[in-house]
Amino acid sequence: MKKISFVVPVYNEEENIHEFYRRVTEVMAPLSYDYELLFVDDGSRDGTSRLIRELAAADSHVQGYLFSRNFGHQLALTCGLDHATGDAVISMDGDLQHPPEMIPQLIAKWEEGYEIVQTIREATEDATAFKNITSRLYYKLINTMSEVRITPGGSDFRLMDRKAVDALNTYRERARFIRGIVNNLGFRYTTISFVAPPRFAGHSKFSLIKMLRFALDGITGFSRVPLRLAFYAGLICGTGSLLFLLHVLYVKYISNDAVPGWSTLAAAQFFLGGVELMGIGIVGEYVGRIFDEVKHRPLYIVREHIVKK
Questions:
Q1: Nearest 10 degrees: Cα torsion 227, 230, 235, 238
Q2: What share of the chain is helix, strand, coil (3-state, %, to 5)?
Q3: 20 to 30 A Cα–Cα from 196, which one of 92, 221, 244, 249?
């Protein structure tokens, strides 16, 4: 019998755990597949870990991996993929915005021979206009800059064949943008669209700062365009400075109309200084990521593995 692994990163989701478990088990009950349900607790401070213990004690399908602290959604997802043993692995969030009722559709596409079945979020019922607009703009930006196409609206709700999971697990960078890595694998790929329902309970833990950091990981992980833009900006400003120097020489030696302390000179200095700082900042972002990678620290630390005795 083939086996399906479910990888579910959770962070302070005590209000959703039982409902998520109930709906997944109801969906899997009539299917002729064995399965395992791997909850990865990303350092929750509520009762999430306690509920995972209770579920694991009552059901041998359930396992839990408790992090020693909060490492972030992408690393929690990585942990689950590292430990999943199924012939196919379905990753999904525990807030029920990834509907468990879609699981049979994902499996059906896998049975057709697709090795990656990616869901496309067409809309989120409770999403703000700001989030929808910025999401669309971000995907347009990253696809303009990146050599690897990132599926617009793609989420971390997907099915991956064992071969694809094993390939993905060879990628060990710390600043992880798994949506981009998956698109870079090259396996047989298809998509399923859905409208995400509101969270079953609680509120999103993905703050604006976390979203910006995640977006930056995607851009710097799959594109060198920002570095090139910094170079081009410096080239343009350098050329402009030479032209400005010719203007200064004209005013000084031909028109004899030079005034000490030109405001234009000050403005030019501020402008060039700003461009230089921007370029240094972009280079620094990449250097900082190199610094993180070369230390070879563990991606995550599992404090406890919960499994039925």
A1: -150
A2: 50, 20, 30
A3: 221
Regarding pTM above 0.90, the answer is no
Place of tokens 């404090």: 303
What is the spatial distance between Cα 111 and Cα 306, in angstroms, rounded to a whole number?
Answer: 31
What pLDDT, on a 0 to 100 scale, did the predictor assign at position 243?
66
Residue identified by tokens 């791997």 is 38
Question: CA 297 → CA 24, 155, 220, distances in Å?
Answer: 35, 27, 20
Distances (CA, A) of 309 to 57, 61, 62, 63, 122: 8, 12, 11, 11, 42
pLDDT computed for residue 220 by the predictor = 61
- Write the DSSP assignment of 236-267 as a string of letters: HHHHHHHHHHHHHHHIIIII----TT-HHHHH
Q: Which residues contact 249 (CB under 8 A, 6 or more apart)?
A: none
Cα Rg for the chain, rounded, in angstroms? 25
Helices (H), 8-58: 17-28, 48-58
61 vs 199 pLDDT, higher one = 61
The pLDDT-based confidence of 266 (bands split at 50, 70, 90) is: low
Alpha-carbon gap, residue 64 to 77, rounded angstroms: 13
Of 87-91, 127-131, 188-192, 280-284, least confident by mean pLDDT is 127-131
DSSP 198: P
Residues contacting residue 61 through CB under 8 Å, at least 6 positions apart: 25, 35, 36, 37
Cα-Cα-Cα-Cα dihedral sign, residues 192, 193, 198, 204: positive
Q: Side by side, which strands form the sheet with 154-161?
A: 189-196, 116-124, 154-161, 88-91, 3-10, 34-41, 62-67, 302-307
SS3 98: coil
Write the DSSP assignment of 134-187 as a string of letters: HHHHHHHHHHHH-SSPPPTTEEEEEEEEHHHHHHHTT---SS--HHHHHHHH--
- Tokens 């607790």 correspond to what residue? 41
